[in-house]
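JOB MANIFEST
job_type = single_chain_structure
chain_count = 1
residues = 220
[input]
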Amino acid sequence: MNIPNTLTLLRIFFVPILVAVLVQENHTHQFGTLTVTNSTLALIVFWTAALTDLLDGHLARRWGQITTVGMLLDPIADKLLISAALISLVQVRRVPGWMAVILIGREFAVSGLRSIAAAEGYTIQASELGKTKMMSQVIAISLVLLAGVWPQLEAPAYWALWAVMLFSLVSAADYFLKFWRRVDERTKARRRTELLILERERAAMKAAERKDRAARARES
């Protein structure tokens, strides 16, 4: 287990901690003489988890430690972190439920497209929009958490969520427009090939049957 993969697993480990902190509203933590509110602690946990997302990819590329496990776990960890944060914020009524449904649904849709593409032999690389999506989500969720400490940030946080939602939908449309046609054409071509092979097999069987009947007719 290399360091980048360890950081990715650490990000997954932070998910239940973030949920536990977020759902306990109006709870404070005493660290000596320092009093920390739940919103502040949630923000620290969330930022720490988001920092691992920046570090694992950078270190993996720099040290040449890009692995199959890391490529599989990294997007899963990202989706778990953002989805857990959104669902928890819906629970405490700080994010509209319909926004969370759209954002999380977008992740499922793109993941489904990636699975279909992989089955057809395509690898869908992250687009420029997709690469910046995670950062925009981190900024928006951070503003929502900061609004728990400074209520004057509630309006900017709400508009940031709107921007993230629109940005996520645009990036999803970009993925589908770029790759769905290629995947669809590949699927149709494969099916046509399978049908052609099946027709050839049927024709060969019919030809063999005709030869067999002819041979029997000559013998009789």
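[summary]
The longest strand covers residues 28-31.
The CA atoms of residues 89 and 95 lie 5 Å apart.
exit_status = 0
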